[in-house]
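Dissemination and training. As part of the outreach component of the grant, students in the summer workshop were shown how a complex can be specified as a set of sequence lines and then modelled as a single object. The example used during the hands-on session is reproduced here so that future cohorts can follow it. Participants entered these lines:
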Amino acid sequence: MTGWIARLEQLRTHQAAPWLGVALIVLTLFILPFVLASVGTAWVRITNLAILFALLSLGLNIVVGFAGLLDLGYIAFYAVGAYCYALLASPHFGLHLPFWIILPIGAAVACVFGVLLGAPTLKLRGDYLAIVTLGFGEIVRVFLNNLSQPVNITNGPQGVTLIDPFRIGKIDFSRTDDLFGLAFSGPIKYYYLLLAVLVVAIVINLRQQNSRLGRAWVAIREDEVAAQAMGINTRNVKLLAFAMGASFGGVAGGIFAATQGFISPESFVFVESIMVLSMVVLGGMGNVWGVVLGAILLSFVPEILRYTVEPAQKAVFGRLLIEPEVIRMLLFGLALVLMMLYRPAGLWPSSRRKRELSETDQS
Amino acid sequence: MRTAQLLEIRNIEKRFGGLTALADVSLTIRQGEIYGLIGPNGAGKTTLFNVLTGLYVPDRGEFEFDGANLVGLKPYRVAESGIARTFQNIRLFGNMSAMENVMVGRHVRTRAGAIGAILRTRRTRDEEAAIRSRSRELLAYVGISQHAGALSRNLSYGDQRRLEIARALATEPKLLALDEPAAGMNATETAELRRLLEKIRSDGVTILLIEHDVKLVMGLCDRVAVLDYGRKIAEGKPAQVQKDPEVIRAYLGGALP
Amino acid sequence: MEIFLQQLINGLTLGSVYAIVALGYTMVYGIVQLINFAHGEVVMVGAMVALSVISALAGSVLPPLVIVFAGILCAVPVCMAVGFVMERVAYRPLRGAPRLAPLITAIGISIILQQVAMIVWSRNPLGFPQIIDNPVFEIAGAHISAVQIVIILGSLLMMAGLTLLVFRTRLGIAMRATSENPQIAGLMGINVNRVISATFVIGAGLGAVAGVMVGTYYGIAHYTMGSLLGMKAFSAAVLGGIGNLAGAMLGGIMLGVVEALGAGYIGEIMDLCHISGISDALAVRCAQDGHFVLFGSNYQDVIAFLVLIAVLVFRPSGLLGERVSDRA
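and obtained this result:
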């Protein structure tokens, strides 16, 4: 018994251990889609959506978690990215640009929107900013719904269909390719792509956090007046957080459009902004790994509910009393309230945010 | 020999509604001196600080710092041009470590941007290392190296004051403006503070000091100005000012110690 | 001119409702410096409760007016209870916490209220029973209905009542003192917790009446009706100067009028056919359709947000507000 523990301890402290761990994780992540696909392709899609939400959460984390700015219209940037992709790669305008051109465009356009929104509003106090961003999100949606007239730009509530999938050379992300005897279906290919983008996003978040800029964000969150007195151009630094967060949303939106093949304004409602915010709050504002965890949890739990609560209700009551969709929303609402009341720093808090939010007398 | 002047404040006026917080205040601070600003509570000392550092815009008057006019500049521009300050009611970044607080002070003298941080370019890494080593030096300079990793809000009062000075020094100021740095300190701490301020001065930083501790001011400052109800009622060497009848009257008729 | 007068009447009606809802935001904000995000949902609950009661009694022998009053009399206490519980559960424990925290719980509460309302009532819009005769009067070519008159007068009455409450009663004095400085008010023997509760409850009661008004006016109620209404009312509160009662009333009415006039005229203003000379393609379109409207009245909902952003950028203290600075 003791020998076994000692051996484990030895393994843990062994030089190669971290690499072994990384290798294991990489292997798991590589195999995962095939395991999921054997259960059902739907689960691969769900996983992809979860990664997409993790991307969004990481973007919002820069704004809310790092810089402490509550953005309630974040989904608007996602919408901008998605429509950029849809309009530049679909029969709607007859344009079919490759994705590696559109994604940067989407990121840049979302970034511009972020700056346009942020420039006049970032001097506002936190709660005003929240309302203004909420309003902005709604405005974007109203425009998407109505910009079908007099000139048809967005195709209105019908949305844009037949959006091109990603293509790299001969590899088409909408078709299944056989490689080394494995069937790489469309969703599986998107999975790997999304995973790669997620890794990049995580690295960006982590590096930003421990940089000159990251410190400036925290300083502003802590005491804006003192931060200014220390020579930090608070407006620009906040704007940078806003712009970076927005461009994350833009990229995620582009990928979303490509994976779905169809988008409409309905995908970009206020509730979606709240969903992303719930993920960030649940995982722990400012903590990169926590945020990813929050996104994955809140993406999967509703799906699991769909497969359990629905049959359970039918079995017990003979009919569906409460739809899983409603339970999902209740879950988001409860997550926000309960987390703030009992675990304000999130499931996996960043050490700094934990200290900050545990402070009770700081108004 | 007259040394060059660093800051010239001319006819500054600041009103809040009907209250005139500063009325026609003019003073000149010379390179390398320790200049004291004293006066009863509510005399306008902190208001003058806030005007000087860009938190308030004066209603009238101007100040010239190192040959440039600073009126109307945002606080961060003022810091950029070489004035650093501390606050009467300490304003540290409470949930950052002492070290991180000082590192934030380096912000204005460093360049690394978002892209550099993401790519972790050689320049960014070098700059980050320089920020760290300089911050460590500054913590040692004010004598709180041992608390580098501690959260600033957990430091003792005296250490928080020192940390605020270190953070201000990190911006490489030409003028260090201290708002009651000895407030709440005991005699030993005050004596240490005095040595620290003398050291800072001898390293070439000019100091503007608001202080209630008259003994400290009289012993430390080269020159002193007295504010009362927003007006400068006296200026000069501490010994002279001490005898000024108007100053004595301002302090409720009581003689200065 | 008829359009103008008609839109003015519509705007006044809507504006009175905004004003009543805005009062709820502004009272709470004045006292605890918190945007009660879920206030719009309280309004929705008010409309829904009244709808249920009115529908249930609609077939009975009671006279229609009594039925409507019964609806209001049920909606008000229910909403007050919701307001009370909300403050207790979600906001009080977070008093003194960083601002972000109560803001986030408020959003959570608003989501929960919506979903619960959806479970209790319906996913679909519900028709508000029209049981009272609604005669329409004509003034100078414009129409005004009895319901509109009742809404406008009722709102004015409530505003007057609230003003009396705040400036003439002991509770009102306590409220004003708490909003100036809760610590000192506490030291002066005011039960600050009770005052804050009372503020939420009164705001929620007003919201309930506003909910019944909107429901009756539009003839429908939906579980999501609170969010947009709440947003607009909040904009109105900011327009008037948040924390300021007179400001909320003024802001509400102004926003209603601006919105209605905007909706009435935006299509005409944005019709590029006025300047069809600038492009041949445009001229062709104009000859075909007779109009080429860049932004029509379907952008009505954007107006409130634009007003909000403009106010916050150019005059954050609002029209009548004075409190600008952040309490450091």
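The radius of gyration of chain C is 21 Å. Students were then asked to discuss how this feature might be tested experimentally.
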